[in-house]
Design the sequence.
């Protein structure tokens, strides 16, 4: 009766498959590691450029730019005051350089996620078969533990900015893909029929009718992408990503309670800034398009 209490295990032959796959990946990285690094060198230069641009800028200019963006997005002095107050508080705590590195990472991952996610969301909406395949991949990407993303990128690229960036993009991109697809699908059929009646082509209907009406939903996807990128910052610090996440990781390793709490609050502050700006802009778009009170 032992078989009732002891679950049967796979045979050694099946376990050999795991060893074969791991060994093949190691051999692949040894053979083509330098070529892979050369392939991603433009991405590394882009990341370094954005980081140097933000970290070397004078702090009053950074605050002014972010406050201006907040004003144009929200048209609310409350949001602008919150952005300025949060940034000043972060600077007074001595976390300004690390915060700028974190913001540069979040901005670059968001830009790349939008550039990749929008076309994929459109393709997902246009082709049902592709949609079913992508739906499966997105489910896996959103349910896979974040630490698992670090394994393949570290095996291929080692420790540094690029593998951390790739892990963050993989973790943060699903919302923009899903909500782009959802926003296009939610466009009223009567509006599409009117576009057809006026003789719009497929691409004209997409870019002049569906995409403008889907922008509020797409903005919600961008908001979620930013939040997920910030959530991945601490985990990505385990493979060499600098910024506030690295400070939190050091605080955990050395049991520095105050350091961990302060850096955690700085990450929360950045998240609130981006969240309020993107949400306020999304609400303005809804009001402008006359769907805010539906």
Sequence:
């Amino acid at each position: 009766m032992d078989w009732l209490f002891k679950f049967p295990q796979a045979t050694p032959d099946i376990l050999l498959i795991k060893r074969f796959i791991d060994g093949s990946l190691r051999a692949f990285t040894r053979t083509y590691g330098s070529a892979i690094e050369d392939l991603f060198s433009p991405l590394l230069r882009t990341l370094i450029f954005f980081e140097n641009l933000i970290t070397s800028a004078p702090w009053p200019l950074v605050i002014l730019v972010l406050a201006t963006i907040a004003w144009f997005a929200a048209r609310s002095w409350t949001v602008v005051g919150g952005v300025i107050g949060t940034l000043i508080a972060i600077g007074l705590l001595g976390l300004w350089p690390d915060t700028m590195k974190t913001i540069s990472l979040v901005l670059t991952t968001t830009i790349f996620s939008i550039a990749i996610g929008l076309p994929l969301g459109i393709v997902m909406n246009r082709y049902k078969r592709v949609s079913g395949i992508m739906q499966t991949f997105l489910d896996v990407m959103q349910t896979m533990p974040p630490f698992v993303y670090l394994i393949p990128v570290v095996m291929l690229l080692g420790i540094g900015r690029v593998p951390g960036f790739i892990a963050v993009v993989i973790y943060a991109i699903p919302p923009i893909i899903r909500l782009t697809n959802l926003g296009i699908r939610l466009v009223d059929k009567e509006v599409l029929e009117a576009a057809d009646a006026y003789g719009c082509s497929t691409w004209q209907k997409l870019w002049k009718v569906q995409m403008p009406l889907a922008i509020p939903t797409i903005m919600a996807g961008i908001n979620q992408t930013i939040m997920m990128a910030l959530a991945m910052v601490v985990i990505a610090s385990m493979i060499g990503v600098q910024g506030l996440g690295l400070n939190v990781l050091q605080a955990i390793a050395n049991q520095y309670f105050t350091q961990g709490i302060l850096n955690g609050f700085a990450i929360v502050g950045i998240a609130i800034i981006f969240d309020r700006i993107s949400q306020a802009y999304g609400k303005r778009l809804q009001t402008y398009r006359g769907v805010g009170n539906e």
User: Anything to note?
Assistant: Residues 202-236 form the longest helix (35 residues). The mean pLDDT is 84. The CA atoms of residues 142 and 174 lie 7 Å apart.
